[in-house]
Amino acid sequence: MIPVNPAQIPALYKQAMGLQAAGRLDEARAIYQRILTANTGLAEVHFQAARIDAAQGNPGAALEGFERALALKPGEPAIWTEAAQAVRALDDAALTRDFLARAKKARLSPAALLKVQERARPPARAKSATRADIGTADPRQVQQAIEALAAGRLDQARKRIEALLAGNTRAPALHAIRADVLAAQKQHGAALKAVEQAITLAPDYAEAHAARGRILAATGRGAEALAATRKALALLPGMRRAWIDLARMLADGGDAPAAIAAARRALALPSKAPGADAIPLAILGDQQMQERDFVGAEESFRKLVALDPGPEAGLRLAEALARLGRAAEALALHDRLLAQVEGEAPAGAAILSRKASLLQTTGAFAEARAAFEAALALAPEDAEIFRGYALSVKLSEDDPHLQRMAARFDEATLSDAERSALGFALAKVMEDLGRHDRVMGYLHAANAAARRQSPYDIKAELRHARAMTAAFAGLGAGATPPAGTSDLAPIFVTGMPRSGTTLVEQILASHSRTRGIGEIGLAAREAGRLLSAIGAGAEGEAPGFRPVDSLQDEEIAALGHRYGKLLERAGIDLDGRRVIDKSIQTYRVMPLIRLALPASRVVVVRRDPRDTLLSIYRNSFAAGSYGYASDLRDLAETWKLFDETIRIWRQKFPGWFVEISYEALVADPEGETRRLLEACALEFEPGCLSFHQARHEVRTLSVYQVRQPIYASSLKGWRRYRDELAPMLEALDLEEDDDVAG
């Protein structure tokens, strides 16, 4: 693509610095390299790129970069200091002597030279704690207060520490301990004042900054919490607990790559406490699961189970095994965990429920129902288990679980999570029983509860999505893939949720030359990261994205190769068969994916939006996904955005994707299947019409439906609920018989 314009360099440098601060090191490094390709005389860019090399465990490359920076700015202390750390990591005596000799000639200040010498020489054990002042307080009494806090005797701990503070008001350590006690008592306002008093008395008191970060995180002030924790680590890089805090905060904020890096830093630091690695291993494994690195997650969770063989760790490992396609191992592990807890609630109920869900993915519906019933026997009031049970079977009106849960739904004390789970379950049961007059009452209540749990800003999402689409403005149908792209030929199935994507995926996955990998989302995620927001924009303004026509050829080619590597980390054996990747969001970045993977195919599935959106509204989704699903008008606006995007792609990139109508597929299964296979460069096989007999795992809300032949009973189902869907229908503004599926 086009080279970097020198006028772009300040903005690119700012973007790279932001990515680097967020832990997205590969992306930042690529941008620094783009800048250096345009201008090799920028010492600060060489410096930052070298810092990334050092952070990624490549001290040799880091030292080369620092040396280039020093050639441009030979008297800059910061460069000498960072270079010294790379020298130390290389552990070469001759190299160290030469480096220190040159540092002496660099006219650094005495203090700066001393710092360089300390960094370059083999280190003593890293400091992991600050020696904070306790004034004249008796150390034994301070320790007693700390032990009371650790044991959960909070009133006793508070009484002891406040008595010590009475005679030592300027002792920062005592204020910090009091802050920990107050935070444990959920008195966050008072705790924040106490820890800030400690920082006022001792500005470099790292543990106090870390405590402030934890308190801010507990009150929902995430950005301030991150800043406080990073300040603590800048003061005391060896503070293990702060690295764990940082990992947890980054995970909560949705930044899995940075959370993984922070958890690894914590694990690299020593600890004498038994089982000290359990928390960072759990965070690491959970975030690897988020990143679809199931191979890494299995490794992390096996280490976790070795430390903590209880059911919580075991269930984590079982999920990783299941995602790696090893369902039999995962089921056996569930059974071992059940034996371990001797079938007692609540652990036994949780294990049985998870086992039942796994059995569903394998098509073992009778066994799944039995497991759900056993779980409900242990936890008869559990709303989420009942939801799984209700979705797996058709209940009779006299089912005791149904009667109990229907009564519970009317209880005013239900939490939003319980009301949401029960509402979705009861709506499904009412539909099965033909009690259509009661369906929408439950659904409206369930979705209102879901929205209270996860607020959603449709306007912000629309701005974000349209800004991403605008990044493709300079790209046209004549764009050609760069040299050196991957020869992988995946087939991406995309569209709105509940539009028939799973049906199309299963048809394709039943072909002898393909394998289904479910909704893995790696290509769309990595393409979105490559486009990278340049800046969040002012409030109410759209974010900026890198124009696709400004991407370097190497970046686009690397995207496709990275997709292949990530598939391997997800445990997917690239055995020559083409993967069927059903990822809902792929349509948003479709042109970039086609450039990065020119042998790929993209299938966009369309269905009457009224049926699609009703189906979405009927279903419960994982927290944080499809936030628009719980509001009828938001659903309509989201479909219109999808339709708008596909219209743009259809006009700009004809022939880059194929569209399949769910209604047409239902009306003519063989004809549409032949057209689908031809578009994907696959020959027709009769087995593709018998997809429901396939035995591969299915991880979708359609887990039951895809084990059935194609059926037409769901067509035009929206008409039954026309009045209750009025806000959605009004926003869609369609005529009764509009053909909007194809």
TrEMBL record:
Coiled coil: none annotated. One of its GO terms (molecular function) is protein-tyrosine sulfotransferase activity. InterPro entries: P-loop_NTPase, TPR-like_helical_dom_sf, TPR_rpt, TPST-like. This is Uncharacterized protein. It comes from Brevirhabdus pacifica.
